[in-house]
Specification:
Layout lengths: L3 H19 L29 E9 L4 E6 L6 E6 L4 H9 L2 H12 L12 E3 L5 E6 L4 E6 L5 E6 L5 E6 L5 E6 L4 E6 L5 E6 L4 E7 L4 E6 L21 E5 L4 E6 L1 H7 L9 E6 L5 E6 L4 E6 L4 E7 L22 E3 L5 E6 L4 E6 L9 E2 L3 E6 L5 E6 L4 E6 L5 E6 L4 E10 L20
Antiparallel strand pairs: 1-2, 1-28, 2-3, 4-5, 5-6, 6-7, 8-9, 9-10, 10-11, 12-13, 13-14, 14-15, 16-17, 17-18, 18-19, 20-21, 21-22, 22-23, 24-25, 25-26, 26-27
Length: 443
């Protein structure tokens, strides 16, 4: 009898062949601009660098654009820009390489849900003159000049897909997950020069700097693009673990597989694929979401034990069929208030967000949201800002009341939201529509 794995591989092969035959060639591209080379996050600094203003960047994954909004208050939109000014050049490279094209089309049909993934994560340089963004479908990291909108440098990651990033506390380094090569690259944020790299588990995802930048934690999530999602097929998901490296040597100092810790806590039913994760301000506890689960886990770093698990309400309208969860992520988005007292949870497939008291783990009111995909903290620390990828908007939720206080329209399929800086009085280099008028070859 043919196994589900064989049937899945046959289906993927047939789909790729069909897409290869139907794929249109991109328009002729101009030559790359001359000189193009192959933290505490800014919003948490106590003193504003002179000549800069704090803002919030919203990456619109399917549009390939970034919206710039105020970091607190009314969250008004200040402008936007494209992170794919070189798209035609990149498409020519991809379409002329059969292997790259197969992965490109696979990303479109898999994690892209029929769309190209043109921006995943982004951070500004310390001087606020450029944004550095990872581009999954283009398998690279690019630096965009915030004055001209043109590339400063580009770094092609190993393998065929770029994913989540993290910026060092001093803002000088950026780490990016290369998800198909099981590698994290650490780059100089100003030049794009690689400073080091290290091996991870299967499909590296979230990156978090700790101890003032001395260590970098990477969470691998394994294979999320198949329908082999039942507990009996968990072995097909690959090697999922946390890799902790020393950032001076990029050597692994610790590996943590949450499988044994979850089993010891009595939760063998939970996946050990760690999704978004946040530390308490003192670094003593780690909170994280896992694949397929509507809730989160508390892990004590010193004792190396899972200490609490919180199950959050299910939306009655959400199917329990795991194959319907986008990229295996039932809930995807977690942020902590600056005082460590509250957690903000994006209940992605359950279409709500909620603020949870960390001491009691009691959740607040459910704030309706359309496929919320990320959560971060506002510049003033008062609110949690979630991206509603299904509604092309971001919403701010008060940590104090658990209620929505603002909503702002952004581009097509917003995902990552990050605090950053731009020059005081900054204006967008190229107008970008708040309704997502950027180019997406998959639409």
């Amino acid at each position: 009898m043919e196994s589900p794995v064989s049937r899945k591989m046959f289906a993927l092969t047939a789909l790729t062949a069909a897409l290869l035959a139907a794929a249109p060639l991109p328009a002729a591209a101009a030559a790359p601009p001359p000189g193009l080379q192959e933290v505490m996050p800014p919003g948490l600094q106590e003193v504003m660098p002179p000549g800069l203003q704090e803002v919030m960047f919203v990456g619109n994954n399917w549009a390939g654009t970034v919206d710039v909004i105020r970091s607190s208050g009314d969250y008004a939109r200040l402008g936007g820009f494209s992170v794919v000014p070189d798209l035609d050049a990149r498409l020519w490279e991809i379409y002329l390489n059969p292997i790259k094209l197969a992965y490109f089309l696979g990303i479109r049909s898999g994690p892209g849900e029929g769309h190209d993934q043109l921006v995943d994560d982004m951070y500004t340089t310390p001087d606020g003159t450029a944004v550095v963004a990872s581009r999954p479908s283009l398998a690279d990291v690019i630096s965009i000049d915030l004055r001209t909108g043109q590339p400063r440098w580009r770094f092609a990651v190993s393998g065929y897909r770029a994913d989540h990033m993290a910026v060092s506390p001093d803002g000088t380094q950026v780490a990016v997950s290369a998800s198909t090569s099981n590698t994290v690259h650490v780059l100089d944020i100003a030049t794009g020069r690689q400073l080091g790299s290290f091996a991870t588990g299967d499909k590296p995802h979230e990156n978090v700097y700790t101890d003032g930048g001395r260590y970098l934690w990477n969470m691998s999530i394994g294979e999320v693009n198949t329908d082999l999602d039942g507990p009996g097929w968990d072995w097909t998901k690959g090697d999922r673990h946390i890799t902790v490296v020393d950032t001076t040597t990029f050597r692994t100092v610790r590996t943590i597989d949450m499988r044994a810790r979850l089993d010891a806590f009595g939760r063998k039913d939970l996946s050990n694929a760690i999704r978004p994760a946040v530390f308490t301000p003192d670094g003593s506890k780690l909170y994280f979401q896992v694949s397929f689960f509507n809730g989160f886990v508390e892990y004590d770093v010193a004792t190396d034990k899972v200490t609490r698990v919180k199950t959050l309400p299910k939306n009655p309208a959400t199917s329990d069929d795991r194959t319907t969860f986008v990229n295996d992520s039932r809930h995807h988005g977690l942020a902590m208030s600056p005082d460590g007292g509250k957690l903000c949870v994006a209940g992605t497939m359950d279409d709500y967000a909620t603020v949870v008291d960390r001491a009691t783990l009691q959740e607040g009111p459910q704030v309706p949201a359309d496929k919320p995909y990320w959560a971060t903290v506002s510049g003033d620390g008062r609110d949690c800002v979630i991206s509603e990828s299904g509604a092309d908007q971001v919403s701010a939720i008060s940590f104090a009341t658990g209620r929505r206080v603002a909503t702002v329209a952004v581009g097509d399929h917003p995902q990552r939201v990050r605090i950053g800086h731009v020059a005081t009085g900054w204006t967008a280099p190229v107008p970008a529509s708040p309704t997502g008028a950027g180019r997406s070859a998959g639409r």
